[in-house]
Amino acid sequence: MTHIPAHTLNDGTSLPALGLGTWPMDDAEAERAVAEALGLGYRLIDTATNYRNETGVGLGVSASGVPREEIVLTTKLPGRHHGYEETLASFEQSRARLGVDYVDLYLIHWPLPKVDRYLDSWKAMIKLREDGLVRSIGVSNFTAAHIERLEKETGVLPSVNQIELHPLFPQAELRAFHEEKGIRTESWSPLGRGSDVLDDPAVAAVAEAHGVTPGQAVLRWHTQLGAVPIPKSADPGRQRQNLDVFGFELDAEQLRAIAGGDHRRLGGDPEEHEEF
Ligand SMILES: NC(=O)c1ccc[n+]([C@@H]2O[C@H](COP(=O)([O-])OP(=O)(O)OC[C@H]3O[C@@H](n4cnc5c(N)ncnc54)[C@H](OP(=O)(O)O)[C@@H]3O)[C@@H](O)[C@H]2O)c1
C-alpha cells in the first residue's frame, strides 16, 4: 500500500499530501470508489453537500474497514446555507448523511461575495471547531481579499483554501499569499478536468523522462508546489496511478515546463460565480 506524506496545518492537524475528489459521483459510485481508494492507501476524501453523494461517501468510509481516525474527511457548505444558524444546521445535515461523529475538514464552498454572508458562516465554522464537531475549518474559492476580511473580523485564518489549480491556471500569486499566511493550498481539477492538460507535449516529455504517465507528472508538479491535489477517479487503476507520485522528483526546469503554456481558468470566477 502506498504511503502518502502529510502536511501539518496551521491548527496542528495533519493533511495528507494528496486526496480523492468525488464529484460528479453519485451515492453508489462514491461508496464503491471511496472504499477502493481507502483500500489503496488514500486517506483524504473530498466531498460537498452540493455533490449529493455524502451518503455514499460515508458508506464507503465504513465499508473500507480503515479506522475512522486515519481518514481526513472533507465536506463543504453550499451557498444556499450561508449565514450563522443556517451553517450550523447545514453542517448537522452533512454530518448525518456522512454518518460520522465529526468531520475533519469543513470548507465554505464558494464565497458568494454578492450575497455577502460568508463572514457569518465563518463565525459558525469557528463555533463548530470549538465544539469539537469539526477538526479543521477552511474555505474554497476565496480570494486573498476574502481571506483578509475573515482574519480582520474574527482573528481566525482558514487552515486550507481549496482553489482551481492546474498547469493551465497555476495561481502563483494566491499560492504566495497562502504561504505568507500559513494556509495550505488544495488544488481542485488538478488534472485540468476535461481540458487538454494531459495531452500537452511538454507534460508528455516530462512524463517520459521519468517513465510515468502525464497524470502522474502533473500530480507530482502539484505536490512539489506544496499544493494538495484531489484528483477524481472512479477507476481503481487510475486511482492507484494517481497516488503513486512520491517516488520521483521533477527538477526546476521540468516544473516550469509543465505550466509553461497559456494560462486561463476552466471554472468560475470567485467574484462572480454563484453556486447555491
Ligand atoms: N471546491 C470546488 O469548487 C471544486 C470544484 C471542482 C472540483 N472540486 C473537487 O476537486 C475534485 C477533482 O476535480 P475534477 O473532478 O473537476 O477534475 P480532475 O480531478 O482534474 O479530473 C477528473 C477527470 O480526469 C479523469 N482522470 C483521473 N485520473 C486520470 C489519469 N491518471 N489519467 C487520465 N485521466 C484521469 C477522471 O476520469 P475517471 O474517473 O474515469 O478516471 C475524470 O474524468 C472533484 O472531484 C471535487 O472533489 C472542487
The small molecules bound here are: NADP nicotinamide-adenine-dinucleotide phosphate
The overall average pLDDT, rounded, is 97
Strand order of the largest sheet: 3-4-5-6-7-8-9-10
Global structural class: alpha/beta
Distance between the termini: 39 Å
N-to-C SSE string, H for helix and E for strand: EEEHEHEHEHEHEHEHHEHH
Shape: globular
Question: Radius of gyration, rounded?
Answer: 18 Å
- Output the CATH class name: Alpha Beta
Reported for the largest beta sheet, the result is: 8 strands, parallel
The share of residues in helices is 40-55%
What's the number of helices? 10
DSSP strand tally? 10
What is the architecture at the second tier of CATH? Alpha-Beta Barrel
Description:
- With 276 residues, this protein is an alpha/beta fold.
- It has one domain (6-258): NADP-dependent oxidoreductase domain (TIM Barrel, Alpha-Beta Barrel), CATH 3.20.20.100.
- The chain has helices at 27-40, 54-64, 84-98, 118-130, 144-154, 172-181, 201-210, 214-225, 236-243, 252-258, and strands at residues 6-8, 14-16, 20-21, 44-46, 72-77, 103-108, 134-140, 160-164, 184-188, 228-229.
- Strand 4 (44-46), helix 2 and strand 5 (72-77) form a beta-alpha-beta unit.
- The model has no long low-confidence stretch (mean pLDDT 97).
- Helix 1 packs parallel to helix 2 (54-64).
- The radius of gyration is 18 Å and the shape is globular.
- The longest helix is centred in the first third of the chain and has 15 residues, at 84-98.
- It has an 8-stranded parallel sheet.
- It binds NADP nicotinamide-adenine-dinucleotide phosphate.
- The site of NADP nicotinamide-adenine-dinucleotide phosphate has 27 residues, from helix 9.
- NADP nicotinamide-adenine-dinucleotide phosphate (NAP) binds at residues 21-23, 46, 109, 140-141, 162, 188-193, 198, 213, 215, 230-235, 238, 241-242, 267.
